[in-house]
Amino acid sequence: MIEATTLTKRYGAKTAVDGVSFAVRPGLVTGFLGPNGAGKSTTMRMIVGLDRPTSGRVTVNGMPYAEHRSPLHEVGALLEAKAVHTGRSARNHLRALAATHGIPRRRVDEVIDLTGLHSVAGRRVGGFSLGMGQRLGIAAALLGDPATLILDEPVNGLDPEGVLWVRGFVRQFAAEGRTVLLSSHLMSEMALTADHIIVIGKGRVIADAPVGDIVGSTKTFVRVRSPRIDEIARRLGQPDVEVTSTAADTIEVRGVTAEVIGDAALQLGVALHELTEITGSLEDAYMDLTRDEVEYRTTVGASAASGASAGPSAPSAASASTEGALR
Amino acid sequence: MTATVTGPAVARLSHQPLPEARLSFGGVLKSEWIKLTTVRSTVWAYAIIVLIQLGMGAVIVLSQPAEYLAQSTPADVAIMSASLGVMLNQLVISVLGVLVITGEYGTGQIRSSLTAVPRRLPVLWAKAIVFAVASFVVGLVAVLAAFALNAVLLQSRGVSVTLFDAEVWPHLVGAAGYLALVGLIAFFLGALIRHTAGGIAAAMGLLLVVPSVLGFISAEWVTVLGQWLPMSVGQNLFFPADVFQPWQAILVMLGWIAVVAVPAAILLKRRDA
């Protein structure tokens, strides 16, 4: 269990994390999402005490991380690939970390095997690829057999097999009743791995809800294709139903279910060539949520630029969202 | 990388409980020992220290004119020749002292170290202790080896020296002690500055630049100030000098260390890593 209470971090005039409160519960994989610069990494660094909060506090299983008698047994953290002296071998790096807690040599060998580093464990870390650096970071996080795992972009640079493996062990971890906090930019990966999502933008919590609720919040619509599409469109035309024509024989309908449309077509005696319910993805939901919160926006052409300069996010938009409530 | 990484194990983690794993200062000492001995810079620096100590001693013994050897006491000749390498080695040990800590900042290792030991200060103290003890032992080996080589060379020039002289051995131990102490000043400068180049520049400035700048100013109080600089104080330990008693010299060196170590410790506690 990780609990943050009005956690704030300012660097000079810039506020990286702005009064964030959330709880990461055991038994679930909690995904931590947000645009670059939103404050994810800073928040994770504050959890393990690498950054000192300007105000507010964050605890792991009831107390600040630094006050635990066996910190590595409490939290395993991967915060950046290759937080390792480049001149030291992977095995010696793990041995040095293990020694602080009196963790036995066999556990060092075990995490090396577990992360598939066996053949390179004796090499100096300076020559490691990004993927191998990630594996070493995960090995270090697992050393103390921790009750809580904090992984910042763990699949970054991993091969598909590695991605699958991370997903598997993270889910296993949560299934054993442990706490997992995971950040990633890969929405499809997050949708497969996480149970609960916390979205952060410009240092504030935008959304904090189960993955299903987040995805459910995006607009779903029904695509209808028919040779006599105009008749169906006319029949559906009501104030709370939105009908958009996308082709000569195709419309997209928001506000009614596929069943209602199918029944309407039957009553009209009109043939349907397609009737598809299209649900939003986590990616769509994320894009909706963070549209106003993106710190570093890629602008293409003048129109996009003017859209971007439409102003910083309205504070009301960010503060309106509270735990479990979605815009 | 040419090696292929074997496929990762299946998700199942072994759950044989780990034996009582607790963070302890003894564990942090052991960790710092592993860290110090598993990078090449340490091995290189210590090897260079032994070679310089041997080489400079041999050169001085072979090059001294016979009149000097005749005028000086054998004890003084033995001390001078065995300790001379310290003048150069204080720079080598200072570079190593800075690297031991700034190497962690430069590579990001410090964040792994401080995550494992989140109270932070044990890392600083353990590192200082391990580095100082290792440097003292290596320094002592280097000085004794230089003494032994010089004794043989001096014998061939008709001077016989002995280690078991109340004048000689304390100075040799003093030479090793000075290396450890001056290395600690550099180490804490590195901890304060957190950058290799900056740390080395600060250490070299204190050891080389400040004394020579003061040398240009002819005033009584500047001369006295110069006697309190680390390099001058150290000469009371390893050369036959008499400004400070050895115990006074050690206290002044410890004072220098404290002046740098206290702000380094406070900032390590306060700053983001």
Protein described:
The complex is a heterodimer of chains A (about 325) and B (about 270). Chain A has about 325 residues and is an alpha/beta fold. Chain A has helices at about 40-45, 70-75, 90-100, 105-115, 130-140, 160-175, 185-195, 210-215, 230-235, 260-270, 280-290, 300-310, 315-320; strands at about 1-10, 15-25, 30-35, 55-60, 75-80, 150, 180-185, 195-200, 205-210, 220-225, 240-245, 250-255, 275-280. A six-stranded mixed β-sheet of chain A has the order 5-6-7-3-8-9, sandwiched between helices. In chain A, helix 9 (about 230-235) crosses helix 10. Chain B has helices at about 25-35, 40-65, 65-70, 75-85, 85-105, 110-115, 120-155, 170-195, 195-215, 220-225, 230-240, 245-270. With about 270 residues, chain B is mostly helical.
What's this entry about, in short?
By secondary structure, chain A is α/β, with parallel strands linked by helices. Chain A has 13 helices and 13 strands.
